Amino acid sequence: MGGGGFSMDDPLLDRFVLDLVDAAKPKVCFLPTASGDSPGYCEKFQTAFAAYGAEPSVLSLFYRDIPDAAHHLMSQDIVYVGGGNTVNMVAIWKLHRVDDALRAAWESGVVLAGLSAGANCWFEAFTTDSYKIGNADPAEGLGFLKGSFSPHHSSEPARRPRFNELVGDGTLPEGYACDDFAAIHFRGDASHQAVISHPDAAAYRVNRGEPGAAEEIKLTAAFLG
Asked: Which pick of 17, 30, 101, 152 has the fewest CB atoms within 10 Å?
């Protein structure tokens, strides 16, 4: 998700994620690392997903009370990653070996989802304001998905022009971008469909075009409303 879900009072994208699993009461673990495990953010997640009829849990790495992260993540139907500082999040995950646990969970069929930082992290590279608020700087992700990603593509002024510049000049590989209230669903490592929860939102494939330029291709998206 470029942005949306419970963080932005948007249940449509969350329910889309829940519908990806065949479980009467899906087990959903929230990873709030990018926000420094903000208590308020965790509470908002738990309230929202309990109301959806799911079984929510939180894996905190700042206030850790789950000793075996790999076992817990493997036991979930869905892992949902929140927004915040992507660079800090990935570094902390590696210290706790959560990156390896997430890959094992993904390869076993657990659905991985998230918004902003929680979308950036799955790709080889992305743009982020982790180094300075208001910027859109390049950084490296976990590489589960090939290519690059840009969240908040139309809502944050620096995102779109900077991502297109970085793809166009080859600093970032070709990839995808999502506005707030837009998401792309991957099956394995292949793009399957785009969905939107607001009629003005969009998702894009961003390719290298003319020398030094990028080409945006708006993806056909299913409206969830």
From this structure: 101
